[in-house]
């Protein structure tokens, strides 16, 4: 499944930020995959915290191979040692099992999240062990397809904003300025900021890297 957006969002962003407009026209359309299975997506995000994407993909594949289906029943059937054997840290294994048991015992209602506003979703998700604001924001974006997500805590977003607007540092006040500018389509702006941070515009350099 691909994140759904169209020319309305693109034209809005182009009208709000001339530098971003040039980037959008240079890079073209960006497709980002999403996973609308909230249970598996949350576990996937927990696994990926503070490790490389390659390591995350390897561990995720091992978990899929072992469980076949990633749902509350199959995860609850695992022991902490089973998860550790897949390369999951002890703390992350604890978080995953705690989350799975809460969902399985109806102590956490995943489906209710779909009816909530973004801030309410973040509040609910961060009540879980091992889920911080950044992880909750990634769930909003890459699982729930919410269109107004711009993460202050995300390194790539910070770097992309520095490179696009020639800042040495993005503090909270400056970040909020850009968030207001891109709202209500911050998520689509995020796609392009990540692309910038990943070097898709070779002539753009990170001012923070200059001495």
Describe the SSE topology.
Blueprint: H1 7-16, H2 18-27, H3 38-48, H4 53-67, H5 72-76, H6 80-85, H7 90-104, H8 118-125, H9 133-142, H10 155-165, H11 172-182, H12 186-197
Helix pairs in contact: 1-2, 2-12, 3-7, 3-9, 8-9, 10-12
Structural class: mainly alpha
The SSE string, one letter per element, is HHHHHHHHHHHH
What proportion strand?
under 5%
Number of beta-strand segments: 0
Radius of gyration: 19 Å
| Individual helix count | 12
Globally, the shape reads elongated
Intertermini distance: 42 Å
Low-pLDDT stretches are: none
Largest sheet: none
Average pLDDT figure: 96
Helix content: 55-70%
How would you characterize the overall build of this protein?
With 211 residues, the protein is an all-alpha fold. Helices cover 59% and strands 0% of the residues. The protein is built from 12 helices and no strands. The longest helix is centred in the first third of the chain and has 15 residues, at 53-67. The protein is elongated, with a radius of gyration of 19 Å. The model has no long low-confidence stretch (mean pLDDT 96).
């Amino acid at each position: 499944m691909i994140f759904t957006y169209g020319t309305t969002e693109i034209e809005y962003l182009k009208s709000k930020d001339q530098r971003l407009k040039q980037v959008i026209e240079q890079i073209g359309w960006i497709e980002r995959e999403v996973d609308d299975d909230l249970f598996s997506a949350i576990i996937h995000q927990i696994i990926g915290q503070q490790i490389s994407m390659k390591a995350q993909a390897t561990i995720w594949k091992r978990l899929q191979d072992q469980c076949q289906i990633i749902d509350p029943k199959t995860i609850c059937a695992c022991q902490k040692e089973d998860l550790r054997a897949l390369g999951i840290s002890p703390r992350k294994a604890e978080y995953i099992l705690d989350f799975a048991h809460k969902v399985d015992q109806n102590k956490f209602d995943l489906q209710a999240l779909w009816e909530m506003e973004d801030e309410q979703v973040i509040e609910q998700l961060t009540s879980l062990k091992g889920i911080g604001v950044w992880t909750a924001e990634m769930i909003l974006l890459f699982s729930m397809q919410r269109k107004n997500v711009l993460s202050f805590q995300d390194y790539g977003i910070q770097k992309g904003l520095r490179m696009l607007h020639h800042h040495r540092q993005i503090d909270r006040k400056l970040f909020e300025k850009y968030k207001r500018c891109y709202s209500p389509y911050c998520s689509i702006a995020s796609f392009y900021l990540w692309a910038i941070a990943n070097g898709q515009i070779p002539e753009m350099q990170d001012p923070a890297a200059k001495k």
